Amino acid sequence: MRLLLIEDTARLRDLLAESVHDAGWRIDSFGTLADGDAAIATTAYDLLLIDLGLPDGDGLDFIRALRRNGLRTPILALTARAAIDERIAGLDAGADDYLVKPFNHREFLARCRALLRRAAETAAPHLTAGRLAFDPATGLLACADQDVPLTRRERAIMEILMREVGRAVQKRRIEHALSEFGDDISTNAVELVISRLRRKLGSYPSGAALETIRGLGYLLRELKA
Ligand code: CA
User: Fold this and answer.
1) How remote is the CA of residue 82 from the centroid of ligand 1, in Å?
2) Which tens digits make up the pLDDT trace of 120-179?
3) What is the CATH classification number for the domain harbouring 86?
4) Are residues 179 and 76 in the same domain?
5) Which long-range contacts (C-beta less than 8 Å, at least 24 apart) are formed by 66-69?
6) CA of 121 to the centre of ligand 1 (A)
7) Ligand 1 centre and the CA of 9: distance in Å?
8) Which residue range(s) make up the domain with 15?
9) CB 1 within 8 A of CB 47
10) How many domains in the chain?
11) Do 186 and 141 fall within a single domain?
12) Number of helices followed by number of strands (H, E) in the chain
């Protein structure tokens, strides 16, 4: 396991790095977002430990940007911001867990273990069709290792279609999935999302086609290479 730590307080950085090291994991630690970012770009980490108040930027914005770019690595946010709103903002930004300073180093290690374990458990089953790969754990779609950005509605539909590759999915099932977003589901709404999704898939070398089956629903078909 290899962890990355971004923390600007040198003493805390050294303490945490030592804890992690003693736990038997490798760790690279940095004092700025810029240095951490450069390391993330070139190294595959199993867990990121990110302080939110850093000299060269806000950790929350940084986490948000990582997730937007499709990074799936678990993130533990470390912060002195204890207010409930701050914690919610941290989780909403894409952190998997949140630890408020000052914290006990045994609890810190336990949370690291929990995140690493969860990551290992969900790493397995990707759904695939053609050159598309969908990760149900994160909701991320990739085409030949390139991330395909999806809206929440597109993601819900894509998951159903990817689970039923080569089989027709009734329109009713898609309507039901969309209704979970609190939408007023008109037949049009489904067609709108489907046609957007079809256009999106068409702009990648996906090796799959989203077909409409009149009077029944939709089908994701793998194209012969
Ligand atoms: Ca700080």
Assistant:
1) 13
2) 666 556 789 999 998 876 678 999 889 999 988 898 899 899 989 999 999 988 988 887
3) 3.40.50.2300
4) no
5) 66/40, 66/94, 67/93, 67/94, 69/147
6) 31
7) 6
8) 2-121
9) yes
10) 2
11) yes
12) 8, 14
Q: How far is the CA of 12 from the centre of ligand 1 (A)?
A: 9
Q: How far is the CA of 8 from the centre of ligand 1 (A)?
A: 5
Query: Distance from the CA of 83 to the center of ligand 1, in angstroms?
Result: 16
Q: Residue 31 Cα, ligand 1 centroid: separation in angstroms?
A: 9
Distance 15 CA to ligand 1 centre (A): 14
Q: Within this chain, do residues 95 and 47 fall inside the same structural domain, yes or no?
A: yes
Domain's final residue, options 121, 141, 161: 121
Q: Is 146 helix (H, G, I), strand (E, B) or coil?
A: strand
Distance separating alpha carbons of residues 202 and 143, to the nearest angstrom: 11
Model confidence pLDDT, tens digit, residues 87-120: 889 899 999 999 999 999 999 999 999 998 887 6
Q: Are residues 116 and 139 in the same domain?
A: no
